[in-house]
Design a protein that fits this description.
Number of strands: 3
Distance between the termini: 81 Å
Oligomer: single chain
Order of helices and strands: HEEHEHH
Number of helices: 4
Largest sheet: 3 strands, antiparallel
Strand content: 5-15%
Radius of gyration: 28 Å
């Protein structure tokens, strides 16, 4: 993953925000929309593209484009910084390869404890019955 190349591939668009700003909301485009084409990126290897597409499939469009919005602040520059930071976090989390789980054997003591508890519960239930005469 090459950060400089990825930064050059990011698309930013300023849109009118619905957030705070009073009368400014109608005049100033402070909301920032970030777009990144995961499948066509030259900065990611094929394995990284596949991994990212798999992890981010709920956030991608049908064309494989990641779209993120930010209108938290009244400043366009601040929103751009927030959305870029959020993008890096999402991308790095999507590229983490999870460790493979090793199956382990259940310890004998755990099996014995379960059987002991089971038999004691059965005994308690047996004692609830009416005695046979």
């Amino acid at each position: 993953m090459e950060q400089e190349k990825i930064l050059s591939e990011l698309g930013f668009k300023a849109v009118r925000s619905s957030g705070p700003g009073g009368q400014n909301v109608n005049k100033v485009s402070s909301k920032v929309v970030l777009t990144f084409d995961v499948l066509q990126s030259a900065a990611l290897t094929d394995e990284e593209k596949e991994q990212a597409a798999k992890k981010l499939k709920t956030k991608l469009t049908s064309e494989g484009i990641l779209i993120l919005n930010c209108d938290e602040d009244r400043s366009q520059l601040k929103n751009k910084e927030i959305i870029t930071h959020r993008f890096w976090e999402i991308l790095q989390k999507s590229l983490v390869i999870p460790k493979e789980r090793k199956a382990t054997k259940v310890p004998r003591s755990v099996i014995e404890k379960r059987l002991k508890d089971k038999s004691s519960t059965a005994e308690i239930k047996q004692n609830r019955k009416k005695p046979e005469l």
